[in-house]
Amino acid sequence: MKGWGLLLLSLHVISCLVSGVASGHTSSYVRTEFPSTDIPLESEWFAIPKGYNAPQQVHITQGDYDGKAVIVSWVTPEEPGPSEVFYGKKEKQYDQKSEGTTTNYTFYDYKSGYIHHCLVDGLEYNTKYYYKIGSGDSAREFWFETPPAIDPDASYTFGIIGDLGQTFNSLSTLQHYEKTGGQTVLFVGDLSYADRYKHDDGIRWDSWGRLVERSTAYQPWIWNAGNHEIEYRPDLGETSTFKPYLHRYMTPYLASKSSSPMWYAVRRASAHIIVLSSYSPFVKYTPQWWWLKNEFKRVDREKTPWLIVLMHSPMYNSNEAHYMEGESMRAAFEKWFVKYKVDLVFAGHVHAYERSYRISNVNYNITSGNRYPVPDKSAPVYITVGDGGNQEGLASSHKVWWCLRPWFELSSLMTPSRTTLHSGRPVTAIQFYN
Ligand SMILES: *[C@@H]1O[C@H](CO)[C@@H](O)[C@H](O)[C@H]1NC(C)=O
Ligand SMILES: *[C@@H]1O[C@H](CO)[C@@H](O)[C@H](O)[C@H]1NC(C)=O
Ligand SMILES: [Fe+2]
């Protein structure tokens, strides 16, 4: 069975077609499968931009709660250089400037370049901005578009990608995503798979940053960490968790009153997006638990009818791979997902595609004996899309046959298009690409 590379979710409130999006149809695209080995470091796909100390690995993410700011990040290899972003609404006319910060880190025998993070805020909605980083001959120029204002009727198209890695399958996922018209990526964790290397860990983080720049420099990727970001390596003398990830990838966590970049929320167009960390404490009374409890209270379905949750390890999973790993988070949070009628929960981790019916298991506790999930109209739909193409390959072995798994839909044979979710809005296009 071929794996699903990515999902495209278009939130529409009126019957309209976004160019290039065939509403309500499962795509016929079939991804060619390449060997599950990483692209060689000397490949052109990892090319270092020309010029002394030229900025590389450029990526942007949402910089505030409501989409009027971006954080621009990049790496300069030789020296820190200026941490400035010049920007404006006209090409080559950069009449505004933001100042950022620089950081660097070591990991085992690797010494990072200078990693810059710069908040560009006070932007207007629905506007194309051009920006420039670096100086002199080494300067580089890019652009991005801000989302529409927070509005229940705002249409927007998100791509959902997880477990990407840096093989030719990863590249294929990326190239295909670029053709879809997706405006922002909701990334469900496991970025570079650099942790599979010892000496080359940092080098593979750098190569991944250059590989994905073709997308990440031009549209926000909403980051979420997976197990490959933990990088707890006492054998290498590296005992602080998420070290490379936290130095390289920023999230606007303070804007949603979170105490950690690992979990946070953003609102974009008509969606409220909650990002949870499968690998940070989340049981009752932990910071993530308190934060989520309060964040759910801030959700305003009048303004953002779509309520979407991202996590790495799926709460419902019938694959042999990572079976039951999401159960502890289910026990902690499912009650709230049902109470607040979350529309969609996206996860990665399992390198396969799977989508649940609207089910819950909130009545199960250690004494109740009600151990099976039951249909629940208030429950979310759970979608796993963890087969971005990393070098571990696909997970195609399920615990039980499809016909014996009443909680899961027959993936590719069905499409939830035009399903009305809790938002009360029709999904005119959820597309699946494999
Ligand atoms: C960061 O860069 C500075 C300036 O080059 C250097 O002195 C310092 O050792 C670096 N720190 C780490 C943790 O690599
Ligand atoms: C667990 O299930 C039992 C039996 O259904 C019920 O009486 C009890 O209230 C439940 N406990 C919790 C904490 O939900
Ligand atoms: Fe994973």
Automatic annotation (TrEMBL):
Enzyme class: hydrolase
InterPro entries membership: Calcineurin-like_PHP (IPR004843), FN3_dom (IPR003961), Metallo-depent_PP-like (IPR029052), MPP_PAP (IPR041792), PAPs-like (IPR039331), PAPs_N (IPR015914), Purple_acid_Pase-like_N (IPR008963)
Keywords: Glycoprotein, Hydrolase, Iron, Metal-binding, Signal, Zinc
GO terms assigned for molecular function: acid phosphatase activity; metal ion binding
Signal sequence range: 1-23
Keyword match Zinc: yes
Top-level taxon in the UniProt lineage: Eukaryota
Catalytic activity: a phosphate monoester + H2O = an alcohol + phosphate
CDD domains membership: MPP_PAPs
Domain Fibronectin type-III: residue ranges: 54-149
UniProt EC number: 3.1.3.2
Family the UniProt entry places it in: Belongs to the metallophosphoesterase superfamily. Purple acid phosphatase family.
Full protein name: Purple acid phosphatase
